[in-house]
Amino acid sequence: MKLSEPIVEWKSEITAIRRDIHAHPELAYEEVRTADLIAAKLESWGIPVHRGLGVTGVVGTIHGKSQNGRALGLRADMDALPMQELNTFEHASKNAGKMHACGHDGHTAMLLAAARYLVENRNFDGTVHVIFQPAEEGFSGAKAMIDDGLFDLFPMDAVFGMHNWPGMDVGTFGVVAGPLMASSNTFTIRLEGKGAHGGMPHLGVDPVMAAVQLAQSLQTIISRDRNPLDAAVLSITQIHSGSADNVIPNDAILRGTVRTFSEQTLDLIEKRMAEITEHTSRALNCTSEFDFVRKYPPTVNHEREAAFCARVLTEIVGADKVDQAVQPSMGAEDFAFMLKEKPGCYVWIGNGQGGHRSMGHGMGPCMLHNGSYDFNDDLIPLGATYWAELATQWLSAPAR
């Protein structure tokens, strides 16, 4: 493994920053303290800072030894989740009901270390923009930064992202060309019938039976309408109706999520859901409302950029530690919005099996969005080295 010596020397200092952020988690668009800390560190290293994109976003700009008209962006997310931490070690969350359970504190730390290395060495041509993004956890912070002019104020030819991945060994990476993470979408279906006595169902119109039939019928979209080689998920996660044993209620509500790796498949599923909802409810004498919300598009890596990232990673950790056939996840990531605007690539860095956690960790597994999770600080030198090497080599390579 080839790590940058200066970054290795900074590990304790950057780890302290990471743990400070972990202890003071902030939710979407509330990352004021975190943004203040990031901006202060960047400015102390001589990096100009722009603030306020996407409410709390921070962008630092690092110019190389000369300008060749090229620029790239490196992005980290910085928001926490609205959940209670189960860990009790020293850097556990001090904010009740808020926790860095996805490792955004570590992502921020790795990018800070890389930014320091790049500005102190400047052994590259062109410009590197380090992007610290708010509100990744379901609130489209990447889109908010783009809408506020991220790529207009900071022109860049490509953009890159990285996420820690529990279960993958430390020192390993996952990268693929094409889809790596799924689109995230939600739906709500409201069925209205006619309330009646449970012992006299013929006097009413039963929305519960319509909901049951609809729940089963919607699954035929996945089993019969969709190409079986094109992965997709349709999960009904909530059904709400009724208040008494002997009352047929007036209405029923179904909610859930749809995940796909392509927008074409998503178009098909949304269309068929609307059709099946309308016809099933009508067949059972109910009326219906169908609401479908597209939240995050699929995270789709660009082929050339994915191949470039794989080459850089191979130089750092070896070919056997870079999984270029890693199985994509049905989880979602709003870095997808950036990849729709610019060429780029998103990689996973192995967070290990959980053995890195100090005494006082919760009894649950060290998995994303789990109250016992903690980022593995051994990743800081590795992830920062990758960022620094990626930026240096990409800007030094011939323009394509």
Please describe what this structure looks like.
This is Amidohydrolase. It comes from Pollutimonas nitritireducens. Keywords: Hydrolase, Manganese, Metal-binding. This protein has 400 residues and is α/β, with parallel strands linked by helices. It has 2 domains: 5-180 and 298-396, Zn peptidases (Aminopeptidase), CATH 3.40.630.10; 184-296, 2-Layer Sandwich (Alpha-Beta Plaits). It has helices at residues 5-9, 11-23, 32-44, 104-121, 141-147, 150-153, 207-225, 263-283, 303-317, 335-341, 379-396, and strands at 49-51, 58-63, 66-77, 125-133, 158-165, 173-174, 178-181, 184-192, 196-197, 232-241, 247-248, 251-260, 287-296, 299-301, 322-323, 344-350. The longest helix has 21 residues, at 263-283.
What is the structure about, briefly put?
With 400 residues, the chain is α/β, with parallel strands linked by helices. The protein is 35% helix and 25% strand.
Question: Which helices and strands, and how do they pair?
Answer:
Elements: H1 5-9, H2 11-23, H3 32-44, E1 49-51, E2 58-63, E3 66-77, H4 104-121, E4 125-133, H5 141-147, H6 150-153, E5 158-165, E6 173-174, E7 178-181, E8 184-192, E9 196-197, H7 207-225, E10 232-241, E11 247-248, E12 251-260, H8 263-283, E13 287-296, E14 299-301, H9 303-317, E15 322-323, H10 335-341, E16 344-350, H11 379-396
Parallel strand pairs: 3-4, 3-5, 5-16, 6-15
Antiparallel strand pairs: 1-2, 2-4, 6-16, 7-14, 8-12, 8-13, 9-11, 10-12
